[in-house]
Amino acid sequence: MTHGHDHEGGHGHAHGVTADSDKRLLTGALALIVAFMAGEVVVGVLAHSIALISDAAHMLTDAASIGLALVAMRLAARPPRGGYTYGLTRAEIFSAQANGITLLLLSAWLVYEAIRRLISPPQVAGGLVLGTALAGVVINLAASWLLGRANRSSLNVEGAFQHIVTDLYAFIATAIAGLVMVLTGFARADAIASLVVVALMLRAGAGLVRDSGRIFLEAAPAGLQPDRIGHALAGRPHVVEVHDLHVWQITSGMPAASAHVLVSVGEDCHAVRVDLERVLEQDYRITHTTLQVDHASEQILTIERHCGDSHGPSHRPGK
Fold this sequence. Notes:
Layout: E1 2-5, H1 12-46, H2 50-76, H3 91-119, H4 126-148, H5 155-184, H6 189-216, H7 226-234, E2 239-251, E3 254-263, H8 269-284, E4 288-295, H9 296-299, H10 303-307
Helix pairs in contact: 1-2, 1-4, 2-3, 2-5, 3-5, 3-6, 4-5, 5-6
């Protein structure tokens, strides 16, 4: 017998409120960033400042990441239909991966720009750079505060947040570079600051690509070890064997597990299943479960036929 167990439905209303709140927070951050970005482009053109135009390009990626996040949230909220039995909840993972890849690509471009400026530093109005960068710090602090209040357990929101925080550091570095240029005239300070920002961007981008990639590859969530879970389930009363155990994430914050469980002859399969679901929920916070539970006497002679293409190891009591 196969049984599904999912507590997510019991909290649908709460999740809906959180999603609406996240949309408002992201929309507010997007409005702040787009307005400042437009002003920064104007100042950059008037001041002939490549540094400010570059920072505006950074902010364009921020705006794009938040826009992607909002679109993905709308797609993920659509109910399951047709062949999409989980709905489009994984759309947020596409968004998170796009954000991570964007950060990595932008890092490559910034390395090129930084090296070019180290070799031949452009003439930049240090005072305008300093003033605009300080204003950018304030705007990014406000945007970070808004996104910090959103649900960052979502890779989607986390991706947008990483973009904003990285740009905040970029503005701080640009402000320091502007101050150095004002005080000393050392034009290469801008390129040196850019390299510091690149290191931060590489770290954030690589983390997002790695985490989203694990979900696409159906890997177990970070911190959950399938072998340890299998041994824990096999050690419960009346369990003879646990095999075909799979642990994965449907999307961020939604771990799932499925397994075939053999129960001792004469014992209550339903009671064993309830006990295993309780262990998965309380000890591992896995609430989306599908367990096929059978008596060992019914399955032991035909186990090779039923599970001859078994995926993963078998777990038995004491082994």
